[in-house]
Specification:
The complex is a heterotrimer of chains A (288), B (350) and C (368).
Chain A: H1 3-32, H2 40-58, H3 61-85, H4 90-109, H5 123-142, H6 144-154, H7 156-161, H8 166-192, H9 204-214, H10 219-241, H11 248-267, H12 270-276
Chain B: E1 2-6, H1 12-36, H2 41-50, H3 56-81, H4 89-106, H5 115-141, H6 145-165, H7 200-217, H8 219-229, H9 231-236, H10 241-268, H11 279-289, H12 294-318, H13 322-344, E2 345-349
Antiparallel strand pairs in B: 1-2
Chain C: H1 2-23, E1 37-42, H2 52-67, E2 71-76, H3 84-94, E3 99-102, H4 108-117, E4 122-126, E5 135-140, H5 142-156, E6 161-166, H6 171-187, E7 192-197, H7 204-216, E8 221-225, H8 230-238, E9 241-246, E10 257-263, H9 266-278, E11 285-288, E12 295-297, H10 307-321, E13 332-333, E14 339-341, H11 349-353
Parallel strand pairs in C: 1-2, 1-3, 3-4, 4-5, 5-11, 6-7, 6-8, 8-9, 9-10
Antiparallel strand pairs in C: 10-12, 13-14
The chains are: A mainly alpha (288), B mainly alpha (350), C alpha/beta (368).
């Protein structure tokens, strides 16, 4: 193996992993505050289509970026309204959001499918993804805001008793999660594979969901985990191209199997679990 | 100023009113969508909700679609009542299809009348087996079942993929990723000749009735309610939580497994990759819409199935893309979920 | 609680059964004109995919233009390849369609099932192999196009490494790889192909990753047998060459795109619809290539290919058309050196239809 080849592989891994980092870090913050949003795939698709459409219409990457994350913010605030105000079940609402997002993105993008565009270089957002993980890690563990988010996710009743606004905190983390998902979508449709096609995120939202657990809700581990997931996928392609015979299904199974094992590992010990998982995940907050 | 207050007892007026509110909202927003698409709302709603079931075949198809949804949702309601969020029904369905279908493929030339019952038995075992994994992980390692059951779903789908691409591929099928067809003895009988609705519908009805009985008349049902209400209370009462978790998981897995084997031995007749149009996930919504009540689940499964059929008809008769169907369905789900709020809370205007 | 549930059941039963009886058969679509034939299509994806479904939809539009008011067409898109497909196909049959095209291999059993119930409706199943009195099958000899691009790739490659991105290990795809390799190695015995299976017809991100991986491993030409134009875009970005799939992909990668293998369904669709109009339709197995225009090459890129090379490519098209050249001419050996097609013979359609082996010279194994 030569140096160029390895650098090339690393480059591909960087490009293909970044959407997982964005969607994963968003979901991580949402889950840290005790809300499970299963609508990632829908949010990503809507982000992808709004970014693509606005780029076709305005021809400006900045507007396209803004509109894309705006779409994620709007859609996720609907989710937030349902689970926080109407107290609907988070799992069912998240699944409904997925269905809605898949449909909405396909409907909006109908006229734009197959329009050629000039993709944006992925490197801006790749660099941003690293900065983002650093920032989120800092905010979560070194600032008051992070303390509130974690307190709300840990035990919302005591957080409320301490005077923190549970609902407002969760609104913000859900919207942040939505914005990050739409950013992942924007990256996919404008940078990674510059095009719009129905369902083009092809299940990456669900992998991001696994990733958050794999990372045990820690930003730095999420970054590492994302690169392990992405790296395994690219490695598998490289081995194939070198003519190594591989059981494809087994390789595709790896992220989920690994996540399951990590999940069992952290939860088997009470202390370890307490240090990692947000205790009030999926439990709605009702003021007594 | 709007004030929200928790209701002490659910009011029966609101109980009936809330779905009506949801339907009105759906009609309103649906009309906006149809007007936006230059379609007559009345005509469109007719095609969406009435057209699909305006003949016997349509009604039969409604059952074909609703039966697996109801069956899975019934199983899930045991878990959900117990505050155990098994969201891996899709994987349990897949394993049911794989186990039961495996029996069917192993005896592909059998004409025995025992073939189908064996397949059904193995189907439910397969589903229950797959559900037992998150259950055991939960009881022994305290592993979050939402996440473990979801991971197991993807693993199950890939295992099915492995079998239909590899060892179980039809040797006469030109190398395509499909198994050979089951023998006639391995096919689920239909209710009426010429229609696809199959005897799985009976199973669904029986299980619904049984669940109604279990939830309301047995100690097990009582335990479920108490544990779901508060796990501490159930400990005081001396109920063994772990056993309850295992049982509810096994029941819901077996139901999903049944739905899986019914799907492959019924309408499909062989194994291939995409056996389920996300029944396992949709059933989660069905269970919540039905408020974990067996009768409610039957009604909500019919309603959700109808939105699927309506979306198909809308493509054909209204010439609108399939995506509009999804959007519409998403709206219906949101409103139905949201309307439940009126049941639990009182909104006061001051 | 009990009372309430009972009331719900009664209400639901009244709505469902009563409503159904009341409106029974009211909603059936009436034929707009007596003689007009209705023709329906079942699509696996959206018509905007710029790949497989897009080309079928182009065929549908061509047919509409050719036959004008004599026919009307409908399609249902994104039909999953499971039990739901039966309902969609049946819906077309039941709503008065005279001819129905089901455009994906995996609709085979579903098509046969509905066809049995509607003996008067004609069915056409794309890429299938089972026929009945009212079910025809049709497919295109896409592999003929692969012979042309194989020749071009063999001539154009400088690194002697060609990257080949594929979906699933089925005969259609394996046949394409073999035809491509036979043509490429004929003009360039040193040529190597590197194959990546992405196990999806459609995942732009993965396809782009695969293309980049192959380019990184030294491929200077990217060939695809998947549906999105992401590989071609990736080639454009990396400055290497590529061939398109299903439709003309030049617009997406003008500086990489040498040519595409296009699926041209229009004339066939028009002919079959005409046969229904004339009452001459009968069940047939159609497998057409260059000769009948079911496969066409997109305009060769003159910026990339020399005039001589374009002439060679055109000559290959022509000799396949007039039968002097076949994509699979003996001697052809498999990887273990067994003679599969003897010298002076060509592979018969039976062998082509079930082709699940690599020809000698290709590295790696067919995934099982």
């Amino acid at each position: 193996m030569n140096y160029d080849l390895i650098l090339g592989i690393l480059n591909i891994v960087l490009i293909s992993t970044t959407p997982l980092v964005f969607a994963g870090i968003g979901e991580l913050v949402t889950e840290k505050s005790g809300v499970l949003n299963l609508g990632l795939e829908g949010l990503m698709l809507v982000g992808a289509v709004s970014g693509f459409i606005s780029l076709v219409i305005t021809g400006n990457y900045f507007y396209s970026f803004i509109l894309s994350i705006l779409s994620g913010a709007i859609l996720s605030s609907i989710f937030a309204f349902f689970v926080l105000r109407l107290l609907t079940n988070q799992i069912a609402t998240g699944l409904a959001l997925t269905i809605f997002g898949i449909g909405l993105s396909a409907m909006l993008g109908k006229k734009f499918a197959g329009t050629p565009i000039n993709g944006l270089s992925p490197y801006y957002l790749i660099i941003f993804s690293f900065i983002l993980v650093f920032l989120i890690n800092y905010i979560l563990y070194k600032t008051k805001a992070g303390l509130i988010i974690r307190a709300v996710g840990e035990n919302h009743h005591s957080a409320y008793a301490l005077g923190y606004d549970v609902i407002k905190t969760r609104y913000l983390t859900i919207i942040f999660g939505g914005v990050m998902c739409s950013l992942a979508g924007f990256y996919i449709s404008v940078c990674y594979a510059p095009m719009w096609q129905e369902g083009m995120t092809a299940g990456r939202g669900w992998i991001a969901l696994a990733l958050v657990v794999f990372a045990t809700w820690k930003p730095w581990r999420l970054l590492v985990g994302a690169y392990i997931f992405g790296g395994v996928a690219i490695m598998q392609m490289n081995l194939q191209a070198f003519g190594v015979k591989l059981p494809g299904q087994f390789f595709n199974m790896m992220p989920y199997l690994a996540t399951l094992m990590v999940l069992v590992f952290i939860s088997s010990n009470k202390v370890r679990l307490k240090l990692n998982a947000p205790s009030s995940l999926t439990i709605p907050f009702i003021k007594d | 100023m709007i004030k929200i207050q928790k209701r002490n007892s659910s009011s029966s007026l609101i109980f009936y009113l809330s779905p009506i509110v949801a339907i009105l909202l759906t009609l309103f927003f649906g009309s906006l969508i149809f007007l936006f698409l230059d379609l007559s709302p009345i005509e469109s709603f007719k095609i969406f909700f009435i057209g699909p079931i305006s003949n016997w075949y349509g009604l039969s198809e409604l059952l074909v679609k609703a039966s697996p949804l109801a069956l899975i949702a019934l199983g899930l309601s045991y878990c959900f009542k117990n505050n155990i969020y098994n969201i891996g029904a899709e994987g349990q369905l897949t394993m049911g299809a794989l186990f039961g279908g495996g029996v069917g493929l192993f005896f592909y030339d059998s004409n025995s009348i025992f073939l189908l019952p064996t397949m059904i038995l193995f189907g439910s075992i397969g589903g229950a087996f797959w559900a037992s994994i998150p259950a055991i992980l939960k009881t022994n390692f305290n592993t979050n079942e939402i996440l473990s059951s979801l991971m197991l779903t993807y693993i199950a789908l890939l295992i099915l993929d492995y079998f239909v691409v590899g060892p179980w591929k039809d040797p006469t099928g030109y190398g395509l990723p499909k198994s050979r067809p089951f023998s006639d003895a391995g096919r689920l009988p239909v209710l009426v000749d010429g229609f696809r609705a199959h005897i799985g519908v009976y199973f669904t009805i029986i299980i619904a009735a049984l669940s109604y009985f279990i939830f309301n008349k047995t100690l097990f049902g009582f335990k479920l309610r108490v544990t779901g209400f508060s796990s501490r209370a159930s400990k005081y009462a001396g109920f063994r939580n772990d056993n309850l978790i295992i049982y509810t998981f096994l029941i819901s897995g077996a139901c999903a497994g049944l739905a899986g084997i019914f799907e492959v031995s019924g309408p499909i007749g062989q194994l291939y990759r995409d056996i389920s149009p996300n029944y396992g996930f949709t059933a989660i919504i069905v269970a919540f819409l039905g408020r974990l009540n067996p009768i409610g689940i039957i009604i909500s499964s019919l309603l959700i199935a109808l939105t699927y059929l309506g979306a198909e008809d809308a493509q054909l008769f209204l010439k609108i893309p399939s995506a509009v169907g999804f959007v519409f369905q998403g709206l219906v789900l949101f409103f139905l979920l949201g309307a439940d709020f009126l049941n639990k809370y009182r909104v006061l205007l001051k | 609680m009990k009372k309430q549930s009972l009331i719900i059941v009664v209400i639901a039963a009244i709505i469902v059964i009563g409503g159904a009886f009341f409106i029974t058969n009211q909603n059936k679509l009436q034929d707009t004109a007596q003689d007009q034939k209705k023709i329906g299509f079942i699509y696996i994806g959206p018509p905007g995919d710029h790949g497989w479904t897009y080309m079928h939809d182009q065929g549908r539009q061509y047919m509409e233009k050719e036959l004008g008011d004599a026919i009307s067409t409908t399609y249902i898109e994104n039909v999953p390849e499971n039990a739901d497909a039966v309902r969609s196909i049946r819906k077309l049959a039941d709503s008065g369609h005279d001819l129905i095209f089901t455009t994906s291999f995996n609709y085979m059993d579903q098509t046969l099932e509905v066809a049995k119930e509607f003996p008067d409706v004609k069915f056409e199943h794309a890429t299938g192999f089972q026929r009945t009195d009212n079910v025809s099958t049709y497919s295109a000899r896409f592999y003929e196009g692969r012979t042309v691009i194989g020749h071009l790739a063999g001539k154009m490659t400088e690194t002697n490494t060609i990257g080949y991105i594929v979906s699933f290990p089925i005969p259609e795809v394996i046949r394409g790889i073999n035809a491509f390799y036979l043509a490429a190695s004929k003009v360039n015995p040193d040529v190597k192909i590197k194959i990546i299976w992405v196990y999806s017809w459609y995942d732009p991100g993965k396809e782009a990753d695969a293309a980049n991986t192959l380019i990184n491993q030294g491929a200077d030409i990217i060939v695809q047998h998947t549906d999105s134009y992401a590989p071609c875009q990736a080639a454009e970005k990396a400055g290497v060459l590529a061939f398109g799939q299903a439709s003309n992909q030049e617009a997406f990668c003008p500086n990489a795109h040498m040519t595409s293998i296009e699926d041209i369904w229009g004339p066939y669709y028009a002919a079959r619809a005409k046969a229904v109009l004339d009452g001459t339709w009968s069940s047939e197995d159609t497998w057409q290539g260059f000769k009948d225009g079911m496969v066409e090459m997109s305009p060769y890129n003159e910026k990339l290919l020399s005039a001589d090379l374009i002439a060679e490519a055109k000559a290959i098209e022509e000799s396949i058309e007039n039968g002097t050249l076949h994509s699979f001419e003996g001697p052809i050996y498999n990887q273990s050196g067994e003679l599969m097609v003897a010298e002076g013979e060509v592979a018969d359609d039976g062998m082509l239809a079930g082709m699940m082996f690599y020809v000698n010279g290709i590295d790696g194994e067919v995934p099982q």
